[in-house]
Write a structure and sequence with these properties.
86% of the residues lie in helices and 0% in strands. It has 418 residues and is mostly helical.
Length: 418
């Protein structure tokens, strides 16, 4: 069994990787760079972004299966290299095909990072028999990652204001990107027992079977899919929405995003306390309440009935709710899944969740873009939220019912079950 100091040192190195990966100067400005080159065509911009999700869709489960078969470290290294290649290509792009190519590379890397990061952290702890530390450590990882993004946004606002270029914020990513790659190369593969399937397709089938057989995971994925649609589409359109409110002040825009991510960091750090106090179902209910009601305020602000100062205040307050979700959602979902899945299928099952979320976003995002282009951005977002609220509420209720049924079933003696 690994010693505690050795595990702690490896966890700190993972935290450093998270900080370097998350230091995003470009975060408030990548959508604005895309729209600038596409002449503010919302629909075309969503089509470019759909390339990201379609590629992610195609590689989500294979990436998770490869991570389960060949290791967490190679998957993370491969993922962070392609992620950074995608960011740089996006910064060099100037046409729709070039943006699409950049997004394809970006998504290929994301497929490995999204399916493998939490699995690497959990398995590293499991190597030392310290799985119970996972909620606390994933909270710390979220805290540091979001604080790094907050710092990047603030500095990015200054850089864009000084250079008057959205492009620079993307190209400067090469500095921290190379440092993140170097850090990932120093990782040590977790020494935990894994018995992967005989081949890649069998690994994917095993992950799908395990997902299907656990009804709580099924309803959790449904919940994540529905919430993921709403929060991501809001995130995609957040920059133009906020830019209109701050009237083109890029320093203020960067600081606003920095404040949002600081809120997400606080939420991520509070995750363990929230989970312990509310339980798994309670955490999902809190997520639901933070996601859907704020869209009423988004729509109200769009009506133009408030003064600019009041509109800015309401606009910022609605976005705070979404960033609290960003801090909570991933720790909640990965903790629930990691508790229920063995290491040999962990990344694959996490990838199944990513696959269905990606599929839903790829379908719904262009629809919102079309509504935004034809009517109004806030109208499209509000319609999406109203529709998605129904299956989201159902998923929470069904998740709780499935958990209750599973507990009752396990409490019945074997002879009684016969």
């Amino acid at each position: 069994m690994a010693t505690v100091p050795a595990i702690d040192a490896r966890i700190r190195r993972y935290f450093l990787f998270q900080v370097l990966w998350s230091f995003e100067l470009w975060h408030p400005f990548w959508t604005l760079w895309l729209l600038q080159n596409l002449r503010n065509d919302f629909f075309s911009a969503t089509l470019v972004d759909v390339v990201f999700w379609v590629v992610g869709l195609l590689f989500a489960m294979p990436a998770g299966a490869l991570a389960d078969r060949y290791g967490r470290k190679p998957a993370l290294v491969f993922g962070i290299v392609l992620w950074n290649v995608g960011v740089i290509l996006f910064g060099l792009a100037g046409s729709l095909p070039a943006f699409a190519l950049a997004n394809a590379a970006w998504a290929f890397g994301a497929a490995f990072l999204f399916s493998c990061g939490s699995a690497y952290l959990y398995d590293t702890l499991a190597e030392g028999g310290q799985e119970r530390r996972y909620p606390r450590e994933v909270s710390r990882a979220a805290l540091l990652g979001f604080l790094a993004t907050a710092a990047g946004c603030a500095i990015g606002g200054i850089v864009v204001s000084a250079t008057r270029s959205f492009q620079v914020s993307l190209l400067l990513n090469v500095v921290t990107g190379m440092a993140a790659i170097g850090t990932a190369l120093t990782f040590r593969e977790p020494a935990v027992h894994r018995l992967p399937a005989s081949n890649l397709l069998a690994q994917i089938r095993t992950g799908l079977r395990i997902t299907r057989e656990n009804r709580q995971i099924v309803f959790l994925i449904l919940f994540q899919v529905v919430v993921g649609i709403v929060t991501y589409v809001m995130a995609f359109f957040r920059a133009p929405y906020m830019q209109a409110l701050v009237a083109g002040d890029f320093v203020f825009l960067g600081l606003a995003f920095a404040g949002f991510f600081a809120i997400a960091a606080a939420a991520g750090m509070s995750f363990e306390k929230i989970l312990n106090r509310l339980g798994e179902t309670g955490a999902l209910v809190l997520t639901f309440l933070l996601v859907f009601p704020p869209f009423a305020a988004v729509y109200t602000v769009s009506l133009g009935i408030f003064s600019p100062g009041v509109a800015l205040l309401f606009g910022v307050l609605t976005q705070i709710c979404f960033y609290i979700i960003w801090g909570l959602e991933s720790p909640v979902v990965t903790t629930i899944i990691n508790r229920r899945v063995l290491s040999s299928e962990r990344a694959t099952v996490l990838a199944v969740s990513t696959f269905f979320t990606t599929l839903a976003i790829a379908i719904m995002e262009p629809i919102v873009g079309l509504l935004a282009a034809k009517y109004d951005l806030a109208v499209g977002l509000t319609i999406l939220a109203a529709i998605m609220a129904v299956p989201s509420a159902y998923a929470v209720v069904a998740y709780r019912a499935a958990g209750t049924k599973a507990r009752l079933s396990s409490a019945v003696p074997t002879s009684a079950k016969r």
